[in-house]
Amino acid sequence: xxxxxxxxxxxxxxxxxxxxxxxxxxxxxxxxxxxxxxxxxxxxxxxxxxxxxxxxxxxxxxxxxxxxxxxxxxxxxxxxxxxxxxxxxxxxxxxxxxxxxxxxxxxxxxxxxxxxxxxxxxxxxxxxxxxxxxxxxxxxxxxxxxxxxxxxxxxxxxxxxxxxxxxxxxxxxxxxxxxxxxxxxxxxxxxxxxxxxxxxxxxxxxxxxxxxxxxxxxxxx
Length: 221
Ligand code: ADP
Hints:
Layout: E1 7-13, H1 19-30, E2 34-36, H2 37-47, H3 50-60, H4 67-78, E3 86-90, H5 96-108, E4 115-120, H6 123-131, E5 133-136, E6 142-144, E7 163-164, H7 171-185, H8 187-194, E8 198-202, H9 207-217
Parallel strand pairs: 1-3, 1-4, 2-3, 4-8
Antiparallel strand pairs: 5-6, 5-7
Helix pairs in contact: 2-3, 4-5, 6-7
This protein binds adenosine-5'-diphosphate (ADP).
């Protein structure tokens, strides 16, 4: 294995743009872990930890969790051994202060991001997509009733657990999350473009088309 090659990637995109799905795929392709703050936070809620109790209401109402909490989660996670050759960050950073904190964390280790991929999807398409999204409460895997169907009924392909709709995928909440994305997260595109790290792809209806566009955009990594 070539240990010099690193894949430290950030995926950006509106809620439901397909970040999680692409992250799951890229994690296999590059043999680096996926770090999804949304999955970690939902697991904390499910497990009833102190963090879970603190963030439950915020998440269910489509509000962002405080920067310090997510920065602490990511700081610990990327320090683990399996992140040595990289990671696929999905859902973090979501604000400029989070991006600055990530730069500092990486800088302290003498490393840096390799690329930031933004998946672009129009707001009106997002709202339609979200209604069909289903997630596994146990392992966090994400599905869609039309675009990414589970192999076996309404059960998770990985662990066989029944799939559910997310509380924050209700239309009213999705609108708030989209607003948070445009106000707080979209400015990260300029932040990373200025560092020469940003690559952009159009999210397509068909998963295979988006995957092909992502692979093409990242081929020079
Ligand atoms: P999506 O990408 O579909 O919006 P996520 O699973 O990434 O969903 O996030 C779900 C929710 O978790 C967000 O709406 C927010 O409340 C919280 N969250 C996840 N990541 C972060 C983050 N980096 N900063 C603040 N809040 C976050």
